[in-house]
Amino acid sequence: MFTIFNQSLRRWKWQIIGWGSSLLVIAMYLMWLYKPMMKQQAQVKALFDAYGKEMLSFFGGTVDIFSAGGYLNFGFFSYIPVVLGILALLLGAGLVVADEEKGTLDLILAHPISRTALFWGRWLALVAALMAVLVLTWAGFAVGLPWTGLNATVWQLLLPHIALFSILLLFSSLALWLSLVLPSRTLAASVTAALLVASYLVTSLASVNAKLEPLNQFSPLKSYQGGSAINGLHIGPLLSSCGIALGFALLGWLLFLRRDIRVSGEGTWGLPRILLVLCGALWLWSGCASGPATAERNPSTGRQPSTPPANVESQEDPTIYLPLVTHQQPAPTLAGCSVFPADNIWNTPVDTLPVDPNSDVYVATIGANASVHADFGSGLWEGGPIGIPYVTVPGTQPRVPVTFDYADESDPGPYPIPPDAPIEGGAASNGDRHVLVVDRDNCVLYELYYAFPVNGGSAWTAGSGAIFDLSSHALRPASWTSADAAGLPILPGLVRYAEVAAGEIRHALRFTAPQTRRAYVWPARHYASDLTGAQYPPMGQRFRLKADFDIRGFSPEVQVILRALKTYGMMLADNGAAWYISGAPDERWDNDVLHELHQITGAAFEAVDVSALMVDANSGQVKK
């Protein structure tokens, strides 16, 4: 096997050198280009804004392009799987069939070499060849790193190459398998190339066309991190891709052991058999696209039951947020439901919008020296979970009546609230006592403020309540409250563990401030103050973390939150402690890590003017 391994690498020597050296030069040039681009951020942003999002989606989009991960994804890693995939699928398709079609395979096997040694020796050489090309590419980035101000280390630059390797190995192994079931290596390479390009197109365009999202579930590139891997490699999708690749290699090996050596041009296949093979390939790699599910726990009050309550599903968000593109991302999801459309104000980046003229005054009023606080975590605080819990229920969940203190501004019941629905602060709390319920079958959100169960949960009382269709842009009626003081939904602004673990939050967050103005701005609908001074921020005011704030010293989990605050920002939703960011409780949170947010003060934020995005004052939809 070792002899076959060496012989194969010698055969591919010039391909490795040619591809590797070319990509090394390109990588060095991209690193050199970063610094002059940073000096002309305004011009570059204006240029990108002039292009359609459909075209930019093919190059990773423009969101956070000036960050290390965003730049690497836009300039290289978003499209390189297709470019370098050509080499991978050609090597895979010709791994054993090339000699067979030349008529030399039977001569090779006439020597004391087993088919197993021949097959796996060459497959391992294929793995080594792909690694060698990627190492040369990485060397180009590493050599160019001192020339630029890119916020990354040499070892961080290696992570996107590891993610890329798993994709290349997958498609090269698929080409290998197809070469042993289709009539020729040319056809096998062509079919694999078509699948690779289709996967790239579907994953890229799914970010701007929601109709493609069902197809995107079958795309291996859906779980490809690209340049975003610089912020932390997700092992689950990586192992899934490599596992599927090994599966194709094992199938190819079994076919190779049993087949008779064919002569070039021998055998033909009709279209039905070819389509059957393609369907089998799609079915096999669909597991790669979905990856391992990431779930959030079902919050409860106090003690955790040994079995889940009837008709109540634990909080789950199985979607892995690792899209190929970073501009106009698909909407965040929860229990299979989109949390408002992708072009909703909650899900829209604000990193390129103008600073509000009153920004400095607002920050000073809230507290320029006040520390940011994660108002969520693990464990209990004063007997209740830390954060605002929520629960998902099926469409068959029984509806119960709810009596409201502010019935004139509340959506009437009944509401599908389980008897043991988790309450913010716990069953004995005297705080806001929010109850959030998602009907996962109908994608409807139900929220209550100051909620109390009556007669064991057969009915409830609440201060106010609101119902939101998660597929709609509709806002509350003007001047109406909700379960939140600003008349906004609460759930879309929570930090959820599953999103942080997956490496990306794709929506704005919710936060509180001690004093607010007797006013509200879009998309808020209600105020909760008698103060009229212009120094007080209105409800709904959007803030973002300043682009130049250095997040390198923070833990990976906190960096995910900080990147979201830079890109999507946060909305002022209620009166409360200064810079308290809301989230859902989860036993997987590390409270010590979350305390790193205390190092950040209000001075790191700026208010944003989002008025240019508004289509209609009564709609959360944004202008495209």
Largest sheet: 6 strands, mixed
Count of strand segments:
17
Percent strand equals 5-15%
Q: Could you give the distance between the termini?
A: 57 Å
**Computed CA radius of gyration, to the nearest angstrom:** 27 Å
Ranges where pLDDT stays below 50 over 5 or more residues in a row are 263-272, 283-328
Which descriptor suits the 3D outline? elongated
Helix content: 25-40%
Task: Describe what this molecule looks like in 3D.
With 624 residues, the protein is of the alpha/beta class. Strands 3-16-13-15-14-17 form a 6-stranded mixed β-sheet. A 4-stranded mixed β-sheet has the order 6-8-9-12, with no helix packed on it. Helix 6 runs antiparallel to helix 11. The longest helix is centred in the N-terminal third of the chain and has 30 residues.
List keywords for this structure.
624 residues; alpha/beta; six-stranded mixed beta sheet; 18 helices; elongated
Overview in brief:
With 624 residues, this protein is of the alpha/beta class.
Write the layout of secondary structure elements.
Elements: H1 2-11, H2 13-38, H3 41-49, H4 53-56, H5 68-77, H6 80-93, H7 97-102, H8 105-109, H9 115-144, H10 154-179, H11 185-205, H12 213-216, H13 235-258, H14 271-290, E1 333-334, E2 337-338, H15 359-366, E3 373-375, E4 380-381, E5 384-385, E6 391-393, E7 402-404, E8 435-439, E9 444-449, E10 452-454, E11 459-462, E12 464-469, H16 497-502, E13 509-513, E14 542-545, H17 556-567, E15 570-575, E16 580-582, H18 591-594, E17 605-608
Parallel strand pairs: 3-16, 6-8, 7-11, 13-15
Antiparallel strand pairs: 1-2, 4-5, 8-9, 9-12, 10-11, 13-16, 14-15, 14-17
